[in-house]
Amino acid sequence: MKLTRRNFIAAVIGGVAGIQATPLPWKITDDIAIWTQNWPWVPVPSTGEFSDVSSVCNLCPGGCGIAVKKVDERAIKIEGRTDYPVNPGGVCPVGMGGLQLLYDESLRFTGPMKRVGLRGAGQFTEISWGEAFDMVAGRISGLRKKGTPEAIAAVDGNPEGTTVSVLIKRLMRAMGSPNYVRPPSINDTYRMGNLLMQGTLTPMAYDLENSDYVLSFGAGLLEGWGAPGRVMNAWGMWHDGNPAKKKTRIVQVESRASNTASKADMWVAPRPGTDGALALGIAHVIIKSGQYDSRFVSDHSSGFEDGRSLDGVNHIGFKTLVLEKYSPEQVAKITGVSPKTIVSLAKGFVSAKTPVAVYGKGKDSLNGSLYEFMAVQSLNALKGSINRSGGVLLPDPIPLSNLPLLEVDAVASKGLKTPRLDQAGTMRYPFSDSLINNFTEVIKKSSKSPVDTLLVFSANPFFTLPDGGGFKRALEKIPFIVSFSPYRDETANMAELILPDSTYLEKVDDIVWPTGLQYPLYGLSKPVVEPLYNTKNSGDTVIELSRAIDESVGSAFPWENFEEVLQVRAKGLFDAGGGLVSYDPDTPAWQRQTAGNGPKPEYESFDEMWEGIQSGGMWYRPVSSPRSWKGLFNTPSGKFEFSSKLIAQAIENYSNKISKKAALKNMGIAVTDDEACMAHYEAPKTGSDSSVYPLRMLPYEMINLASGWIPSPPFLYKTIFENQLLKDKSFAAINPKTAARYNLKEGALVAVKSPAGEVQVRINLSEGAMPGIVYLPLGFGHTAYDEFLKDKGVNPNNIVQAGQDPISGYPVWWDTPVKIVRV
Amino acid sequence: MKKSNDHGKYKYGMVIDIDKCTGCGTCMVACAAENNVAVRADQSDKERTITWMRLYKISNGKEFPHTEVSYFPRPCMHCDHHPPCVSVCVATATKLDFNTGIVSQIYTRCIGCRYCQAACPYGARYFNWWDVFPQDKGMDRYLTPEVSPRMRGVVEKCTFCHQRLMGAKTLAYAEDRQEIEEGEYVTACTEACPAQAITFGDLNNPEHEVSKLIKHPFTFRLLERIGTDPKVYYHSSRDWIRKLGDNFLPGEYTPVVNKTWAEEEWSTKPGRDEF
Amino acid sequence: MKDPENSPKKSSDRGGDRPPSGFFPRWMNINILAQDVGFFILGLIGASIVGWIVFPAVLYSKHPQPINFNHALHLDSERVDGIEGETKDEKCFSCHSFRDDGTFTGIPKLEKCTECHDDPESPLGETPAEKTFMTKYVANEKEIPWLVYSKQPDCVYFSHIAHVKMGNIDCATCHGDFADNEKLPLYVKNRLTGYSRDIWGKRISGFYWNKKFSDRMKMDDCARCHTEKDQKQNNACFVCHK
Question: Which Pfam families match (chain A) (predicted)?
Answer without folding.
Answer: Molybdop_Fe4S4, Molybdopterin, Molydop_binding
